[in-house]
């Protein structure tokens, strides 16, 4: 996301995120210090970049979306994830602006997006040609963009979720594969997560154009998250998850990106499932006194039914007039799956084994 958006940390504003890494044992008490209380009273901020992460190939994270957003109040970049082949999951705050009453009191939000460029399969944001797949949406933005009706842009970024319906499906490719949404058991405390995106690699640095990811982000339970954020006067709700790590996490930058976990709750999968959406963090990213970096993400489990209801209604086919005609599998995809021997481990939306073997 734009550094301008992330800098809006005054008067209870929020900041979107990206990520931080240093290999140090996590032995610190999860308590904000008196210094950090003063430091962070400005309010949470939407996240904008991955700090201390590692360059990553799009084949490792083929659902990663890079979204360039033109809004009436400026241009922004956000992350997202590919669902099925015609939907992008992202954060609501990327696409809207706080609405105020004539007296200047915050009162809901309004969609201020006028154009979206959506890219999947990106390694370098300076190189958006083939094999990167891209779409632009310039008309009827409201018909493509679904913002959660209970999204709270003014206070705590609760229900910070958005879906983008693409004009057409992307084409299946080793760099372009949808992610599967996790279930409740995938988001149990103690599991380790991975986040990814584009942007600055240090809080005060300039943006990088290379896809970055960071792993080993430990998932905490709700009571620990509430205990950490309550003194900071940030509202942590049951629609959120949090990680709090030493010198490692997300910081102002890639709001909307997928937070994933691997098989058996490890952050070095595959197979991968998405359990969260990068949402918000602290204005200074890291507590300078303790080195702790908290990251709050949308809890996908709370929105699975909401997501699938939107997709299923939009994609519901007309009633058939006769028996359905079977669609033959794509030979290119089947040969790719066979060659990669990943059909049993790639947890993608389509059942590739059944598709390819009949």
- The domain count comes to 1
Unreliable stretches covering 5 or more consecutive residues:
1-14, 17-29, 33-43, 340-358
End-to-end gap: 43 Å
Element-by-element helix/strand order:
HEHEEEEEEEEEEHEEEEHEEEEEHHH
Biggest sheet statistics:
8 strands, antiparallel
Radius of gyration: 20 Å
Q: What name does CATH use for the topology?
A: Thrombin, subunit H
Look at the structure and give the mean pLDDT.
76
The total beta strand count reads 20
Indicate the proportion of strand residues. Answer: 25-35%
Shape: globular
Structural class: alpha+beta
User: What's the architecture, going by CATH?
Assistant: Beta Barrel
Count of runs of 4 or more consecutive helical residues: 7
**CATH class descriptor:** Mainly Beta
Helix share of residues?
A: 10-25%
